[in-house]
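Protocol step 4 of 6.
Sequence for Transglutaminase-like cysteine peptidase (Halomonas colorata) entered exactly as in the expression construct, tag removed. Do not edit the line below.
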Amino acid sequence: MPAPFNPSPFKLSRRQFLATAGALLLGSGLGIHPTPAVAFDPQRLRQSMQQAYGQAGLAVLEEWFAMLERLRGQDVQMQLREVNDFFNRRIRWVDDMVVWGEEDYWATPLEAMGNGRGDCEDYSIAKYITLKQLGVPGERLRMIYVRARIGRSQITQAHMVLGYYSTPNAEPLVLDNIAPSITPASQRSDLDPLFSFNSEGLWAGGSSESRADPLARLSRWRGVLERMQSQGFI
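Step 5 output, structure tokens:
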């Protein structure tokens, strides 16, 4: 990418934020609250999946558990590649309005796997949670909102990818549902970064330090974390 991968502030609604770039202005006085301790509960996840999506959903969840066992302790590049492929192959891109009857719904990994359908946020969240469960440090992962250019045209659409940062100031590797290969951000000239976040912070503009609490600023992120907690992810 021609510019540093330090996204700028933007309104969160995918259908509206391209027209309202100033809506998510960040204040410098906000602190970062610690995230809840991980309480991963496979049995509760199985119960949640069985109740919501039946045997078909449970079968995908068992594939996910098997992947976690296979990749635990492996090289991070292998983890990134296999997690990226797992969700790109098992989730079919479908608009939120079709799946959920809502304009912009962020699904938990359980909901995405159970439905077998989702959009860009759902892929990114599922990959983020899975890599954290494999032991990849959360500070190395950020969900990144971008403008994605379609083909060779100047038409853009709101999109989310997952970035892996080997160091805090490194160029990220981009995990994306519309491109099968994981590539450095500089090779994705079709993406213009806007802002990024994870469970610990929210980055905007040219700042190298988080200036906002994502739980306070991103209501959809807060909502998906609450549902993940009730399902047994955290």
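Step 6, annotate. The beta strands are 92-93, 117-118, 141-149, 156-164, 173-175, 183-184, 191-197, 202-204.
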